[in-house]
């Protein structure tokens, strides 16, 4: 039986007491790649924020990488996020540190101590996204696609059980989007579970996989050819 990474049962997501998505039932197993699609304002970001503890779950049952979202305490959120790699649309790299220092900052903040182990890990994740030769560059010296590759590498630092990619190609041109998507697919093929929100239907057609759609306060699976 496949290992469950995410389980949601009768979940309703609220923001400021307003229902954003209701009656969500979803099971994501280890190694899956899942798209979340929908128009702006349909609930994609609220869905992702609930998964990484930014929006509290108040209705329904939710379990993600072993954490109960309903009973999740404020102090537990950093530990949850160590088991989840998060990739944002706007990269969120520290502008005053080079790429190596950006990744070193994350490792130190999450409890790593040994200098050699940290450097080996940084080299490994940068190599996995084709960015090892850029380690001494500053973020502003990289293109948008290169910065997003670094952001993906950062998400891999603590060997997460799940990667949440929230519109990871939203700020990229079509060709660069395909290149970043190819990196994510390669990581998925190596066994990582990925949930990716996107409004880029061209990417979905080029890299088809299981797709859920947010619409009319609900979320449902769509057949690929109808998205």
UniProtKB/TrEMBL annotation:
Part of the ABC transporter FtsEX involved in cellular division. Important for assembly or stability of the septal ring. The keyword Cell cycle does not apply. Residues 6-227 form the ABC transporter domain. One of its GO terms (molecular function) is ATP binding. Belongs to the ABC transporter superfamily. Pfam families: ABC_tran. One of its GO terms (cellular component) is plasma membrane. Keywords: ATP-binding, Nucleotide-binding. SMART domains: AAA. It comes from Flavobacterium capsici. InterPro entries: AAA+_ATPase, ABC_transporter-like_ATP-bd, ABC_transporter-like_CS, ABC_transpr_LolD-like, P-loop_NTPase. This is Cell division ATP-binding protein FtsE. It comes from the Bacteria.
């Amino acid at each position: 039986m496949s290992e469950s990474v995410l389980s949601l049962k009768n979940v309703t997501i609220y923001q400021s007491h307003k229902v954003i998505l209701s009656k969500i039932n979803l099971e994501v197993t280890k190694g899956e790649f899942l798209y979340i699609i929908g128009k702006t304002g349909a609930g994609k970001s609220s869905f992702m924020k609930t998964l990484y503890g930014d929006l509290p779950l108040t209705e329904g049952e939710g379990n993600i990488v072993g954490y109960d979202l309903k009973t999740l305490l404020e102090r537990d959120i950093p530990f949850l996020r160590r088991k989840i790699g998060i990739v944002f649309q706007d990269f969120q790299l520290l502008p005053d540190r080079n790429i190596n220092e950006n990744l070193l900052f994350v490792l130190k903040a999450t409890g790593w101590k040994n200098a050699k182990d940290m450097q080996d890990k940084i080299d490994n994740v940068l190599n996995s996204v084709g960015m090892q030769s850029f380690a001494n560059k500053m973020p502003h010296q990289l293109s948008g696609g290169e910065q997003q590759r670094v952001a993906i590498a950062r998400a891999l630092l603590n060997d997460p059980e799940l990667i949440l990619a929230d519109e990871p190609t939203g700020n990229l041109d079509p060709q660069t989007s395909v290149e970043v998507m190819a990196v994510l697919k390669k990581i998925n093929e190596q066994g990582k579970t990925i949930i990716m929100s996107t409004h880029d239907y061209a990417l979905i057609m080029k890299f088809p996989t299981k797709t859920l759609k947010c619409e009319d306060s609900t979320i449902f699976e769509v057949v690929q050819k109808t998205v």
